[in-house]
Amino acid sequence: MHYPAVLLLLLPGGVEAFRICAFNAQRLTLTKAAREHVMDTLVRILVRCDIMMLQEVVDSTGSATSLLLRELNRLDESGSYSVLSSPLLGRSTYMEKYVYVYRSHKTQVLDSYVYKDEDDLFAREPFVAQFTFPSKVLPHLVLVPLHASPKAVEKELNALYDVFLDVSERWQSKDMILLGDFNADCGSLTKKRLGELVLRTQEGFQWVIPDDEDTTVRASTHCAYDRIVLHGERYGSLLRSAAAFDFPRSFGLTEEEVIGGGGGGPGFPRKAPQTGH
């Protein structure tokens, strides 16, 4: 299970922050979302974020997403939330969505598209989105998500550079945030191979979740699977922090309660990487 990755961007004036998060929801179905303890944990994580990019949303009808949005708007009175969802993506009978959940009183969707993966390099091609940003320092936010297949991490992460080039040409901007469950550590990718990735050797890419960060919930593992990568000097000037949000500790949950060894827990084995401006 993972922690959410959280990026904190500091708005001009230094008082207000803008939080961008990415979280692997571990096969979020309507059945799973309908469990009270699952929904409670999800909502408590989501209210910390201005934009949350969820992965592994297995929701063909959109019912799980609708339930989540309804509960979020009911329980958090600080402002309304909206959702931007990709179509189901995948190569087999198992398909999943990227879902952006965002505070609609702070940001709005400007544009979005599914990357055209002509060479079939991605198990789940990125669903790129452009959002407004509440500051004139940046004309907009561009988010490029990826839930990489553990069996093809190196190939997919190198192909992510091609997505970067495609987005740069389409929207005439090289300022963007690449984020998600990259599976970029431990058994899926060695430190040596990590250092040889195009996104590590090309100038301008800033990996803001440290390589030694643990984004997993289990005490028996220590892996930096979930990552956030920035490109563009303006992001660098706004960056305040980036880390995995240890929600079990913050919410007073044990490992067993979070992972749910018999199906009783929320079933979220990762932390939540996040950033803020």
From TrEMBL:
Keyword Cell membrane (UniProt): no
Region called Disordered, residue ranges: 258-277
Keyword Transcription applies: no
One Gene Ontology term of the molecular function aspect: DNA binding
Location relative to the cell: Endoplasmic reticulum
Domain Endonuclease/exonuclease/phosphatase: 22-232
Residues of the active site: 96, 147
GO cellular component: endoplasmic reticulum; nucleus
Main location: endoplasmic reticulum
InterPro entries: Deoxyribonuclease-1_AS, DNase_I, Endo/exonu/phosph_ase_sf, Endo/exonuclease/phosphatase
CDD domains to which the protein is assigned, alphabetical: DNase1
GO biological process: DNA catabolic process
Signal peptide per UniProt: 1-17
Top-level taxon of origin: Eukaryota
Keywords: Disulfide bond, Endonuclease, Endoplasmic reticulum, Glycoprotein, Hydrolase, Nuclease, Signal
SUPFAM superfamilies found in the cross-reference section: DNase I-like (SSF56219)
Disulfide bonds: 186-223
Similarity-based family: Belongs to the DNase I family.
Name recorded for this polypeptide: Deoxyribonuclease
Gene that encodes it: DNASE1L1
